Amino acid sequence: MNYRTYLVAGCFLCIGIAKNLNGIATAGSSFRKSRQLACVFETSKIIPLTKELEIIRLNVRLLLSGTESEEARRSHSENHPQDNIPSFFVKESSLDILQHANEDINTLDCRISAYFTANTQIIWPGREIRASSLDSWFICTIKHTAEKYMTTAFLVQTHKENENHSQGQLSPGIAEQSHVSAVFLVHTRPSVVRSALSKDVLFDCAFSIDHQADVTIQWVLHRKGGHKKLMFTYNGSSKQVEHMADRAEMFLEEIPKGNASLLLRNVEMRDEGTYSCSVSVSSLTGEQAIQLQIEEKPTVIVNVNSLSLVEGEQYKLICDIRNYYPLDAQAQWLRELKGSRKVPDVVKNVLSSNHRQSSNGTYSFSRYFLLTASLEDNEHTYTCRVDHQSLQAPIRRSVIVQVRGTPLT
């Protein structure tokens, strides 16, 4: 099945990240009005006496420009008075790092940190190479608080000759404006993918660069316990696939359009874990993580649908909960009175079997109790109710009980 077939089948996939026609990023009505996003700048320093690492967090702004005139820019500055909050002003020629942030800004978490280059000059097309001054690089990560998507962008600030600056540092309490360009970004959605067994899963990963470039893409599965498995490697320089795990595919014809997504067919239990999408260009690597959670719905069966007993007769009612994953499942037997709107009574003295694990990794267990027939139970219903995280609503399986009196002798 090719990429376009998956689109028709209803799987949404982001193909590249393009700039809006007016050059202004959109992130819901709140952002369209202010064109700014509250962020946290994270840096660190070593405490001299203790040699401990101290994390420093500063409130900053992320300001995105559009194709506005200088007069409009001056008006914008007047509407945002100096309040000692440092600002990152993204130039209008940059990539649109908020194109996919179509939610209100209150649902977005923005973090900016310095990207340390070890005092080496990053060679980037369109940027001047100067021996006397290094560019300052930053990483900006914007994620939806409900894990709908996440974007990581590389920002670069070019310093002029003889300009007094401290690379990658912001001073607390001092207002300053850093004019930066967004040159490379990686985007994934959603951050958590849930799938049943034997299904095909699409891990959505896209990238955008401010120039045509060959990229290297690598997908790695991180399992619990620190175990890693290389899933796919594509070398942009040779245009060759260097590694491909069983059942893993990429849409090679879509890579030049910014599509780095991975398709995993016929999902198995061993595929559960965190998948990292790494896109490398020049000496920059953008990496995003998508978590795969296996969820298998339980099958619920009771050992009888209706029951006719004589008063005093005993019968073992069994509720089998089969082939579910993950392990945590809850099951209750309820006694529902005929014609009553009251909350059903929870049956007491119910026992549980041990959990059984099948060859495909799913679990099963039983809940059962011994019913002693009473005339009060006549035409009442006993219901097994099962809750599990894979279910939108509990599963209910019921037994209608009829009880007749003991024959006279």
TrEMBL record:
The keyword Cytoplasm does not apply. InterPro entries: Ig-like_dom, Ig-like_dom_sf, Ig-like_fold, Ig/MHC_CS, Ig_C1-set, Ig_sub, Ig_V-set, Immune_Resp_Modulators. The keyword Acyltransferase does not apply. Residues 172-291, 298-400 form the Ig-like domain. Keywords: Immunoglobulin domain. It comes from the Eukaryota. This is Tapasin-related protein-like isoform X2. It comes from Apteryx mantelli. The lineage of its organism: Eukaryota, Metazoa, Chordata, Craniata, Vertebrata.
